[in-house]
Design goal:
Shape: rod-shaped
Keywords: DNA-binding, Transcription, Transcription regulation
Helix content: 25-40%
CATH superfamily of the largest domain: Periplasmic binding protein-like II
Protein name: LysR family transcriptional regulator
Organism: Ramlibacter aurantiacus
Number of domains: 3
CATH architecture of the largest domain: 3-Layer(aba) Sandwich
Order of helices and strands: HHHEEHEHEHEEEHEHEEEH
Structural class: alpha/beta
GO cellular component, one term: protein-DNA complex
GO molecular function: DNA binding; DNA-binding transcription factor activity
Distance between the termini: 56 Å
Length: about 290
């Protein structure tokens, strides 16, 4: 049976027109090389070389085979090289999921650095709220997600990146807007706008956080992300507990106050256990930036 190695041996002999030099180039001895060429000629059904004691030359069939095989082998080598690069994560594409609050801090810098290091890998970005990100990752629509931990899913692995505090979003004319820092129990008379409907680590629910501070809050559960919650605060609908990164966005009619007893949330890079090499390279890149 003819194998790819027979054709590669033939190409080297055709270029050298000398079995000893061809064998040396292939890092093998001459007798096995001669045997491989004979096997190829038997499979083709015609001689490919004319051999004499003093010279080796291509037959017409051999010359035609060489001319036709050369571009095919070059294309095959290019395909192998591309497959190898993809397998090593240096070529292909990945899709990164992030939320409004996690997309501002590290993701843009990570994409820029990753593009510099691996220019043959295309990075696509999908911004979605937490529950959608988990769904997209589980369905294979994204390769990794930069989200708040923990994420409870047996098929996922997570790498922590950084921690973040909660802050209180208030209307500028609120009675507490002049304070430099607040405590959770001072907010017991307020209407809270819930900024997340899904369990997300220490941000799992406004109610649980307030109950840990000794009171049961009045919660207005009408939105599903921090950006929308802050917009409702600006409209005078209530106050909101949101990640500290939100304060860097341009929200008018809202002030932010730190909490002296704020819990800390961990943001991490989450991917499936059987993730690609390119995905791992992106995780390593963003973790490097996170320090």
């Amino acid at each position: 049976m003819t194998e790819l190695r027979h054709l590669r041996y033939f190409m080297v002999v055709a270029e050298e027109l000398h079995f000893s030099r061809a064998a040396a180039r292939l890092n093998m001895s001459q007798p096995p090389l001669s045997q491989q060429i004979k096997q190829l000629e038997q499979a083709v059904g015609t001689p490919l070389f004319t051999r004499t004691k003093r010279s080796v030359s291509l037959t017409n069939a051999g010359r035609d085979l060489y001319e036709r095989a050369l571009p095919w082998l070059e294309e095959l080598d290019e395909m192998f090289s591309r497959a190898r690069a993809i397998g090593q994560g240096e070529q292909g594409s990945i899709t990164v999921g992030c939320s409004y609050t996690t997309s501002r801090r590290l993701v843009p810098q990570a994409i820029r650095l990753f593009a510099q290091r691996y220019p043959s890998v295309t990075v696509k970005l999908i911004e979605a709220q937490f529950d959608r990100q988990v769904e997209y990752l589980a369905r294979g629509l994204t390769d990794l997600a930069v989200i708040r931990l923990p994420v409870r899913h047996a098929d996922f692995v997570a790498r922590p990146l950084y921690e973040e505090d909660l802050v209180v979003a208030l209307p500028p004319d609120h009675r507490l807007a002049g304070r430099a820092r607040l405590r959770l129990r001072e907010l017991r008379q307020e209407v809270f706008i819930n900024a997340s409907r899904q369990p997300v680590g220490l941000f799992d629910s406004v109610r649980a956080l307030c109950e840990s501070a000794g009171f049961t809050p009045q919660v207005l559960d009408i939105c599903s992300n921090a950006h929308s919650a802050v917009g409702l605060v600006g409209a005078g609908m209530g106050i909101a507990l949101v990640p500290e990164s939100v304060r860097h966005a341009d929200h008018k009619h809202v002030v932010y106050k730190p909490l002296s007893d704020s819990p800390r949330s961990v943001v991490g890079a989450v991917c499936r256990r059987n993730h690609s090499a390119a995905t791992q390279l992106f995780v390593d890149t963003i973790a490097e930036l996170a320090g």
